[in-house]
Amino acid sequence: MAEEQSTFTHGVVRIFPDGLLYPGTTPRFLNRIQSFKFRPNDVILITFPKSGTTWMQEILWTMLFNPNLDNPQATQLLLVRSASISVDMMFDTVKLEELNLESMYEALKKLCPGKNVEDGVGVQCLDAMPGQRVIKCHYPLDLMPPDLLDKTKVVYVARNPKDMVGSYYHFYKVIKKIYYKGSMDTFMKLFMDKDVVFCPYWPHIKQAWQKRNHPNLQFVFYEDLKADPQEEIRKLNQFLATGLTEQQLKNVVHHTSFSSMKSRGDPMPDNGLYNQELHQTTGGFYRKGVIGDWKNHFSQELNQEMDKWIKENIGDSSIPFKMD
Fold first, then answer.
1. Closest CA to 198 of 137, 287, 283
2. Do the domain assignments include residue 323?
3. Rounded mean pLDDT of 2-31?
4. Global pTM value
């Protein structure tokens, strides 16, 4: 995928033993994350991209800080209320000015006046946030500090790989930094061959699945959350010990529904981020949010290839994905 990877100013790197493919600035920020001071009351949200991250991020923030839907901070951008510790890697932010991401600049200026953007937006904003934090992260557990689960709570969200990679394909098409122009079939094959940034997929999810019974990790399937959001949020209420009432649980469900979040607009409303024409014609950031949309896009050949890929990689882990 040389053409797309060339859009990263600092190239790409592979991080072993799993051969994770990331933008070239990643090692610089990984060193910062290894020494990052997590707090005992932090809640870390870990996902592979396009697995329901923003949805769960808003759910967690609303549960902790806005269960009565009366917190004036709820009108702020989500990236200001709940920063991402992996955003600097994702957007190669040593050259953030090339992206024209005003929302990230504003978050940094608001939380860290006078700080240098090249030292990282996510880590600096999180350092400056007072009190309890909801922290978004796309790194797998093995790249986080080894004692993370001993220090704080982690929520991991997994989405069935067919819908996830379909959503990732659309993301790759509309982001100006990448602006992928190839076909879906080609993208999927590159993804399965571990040649798309953030891949490979399987080590990411398996690391969390292996630790699903740890008392400080809550493993959530996107499809379960979609089927019965109130029940899954009730489980989170118990895991986080937030003590929400039934009415507060209903508030969270309503406020974080797909239609409600879509009505409030993109979480990163930056004109410089997206190819605007494609972004609008494909439905915006909150594109569909449905289960089984892959059926509308996969060729029979591609579906067979992905079935084989899933069977070969899932092995004896028996992760119970729901494909529709």
1. 137
2. no
3. 80
4. 0.91
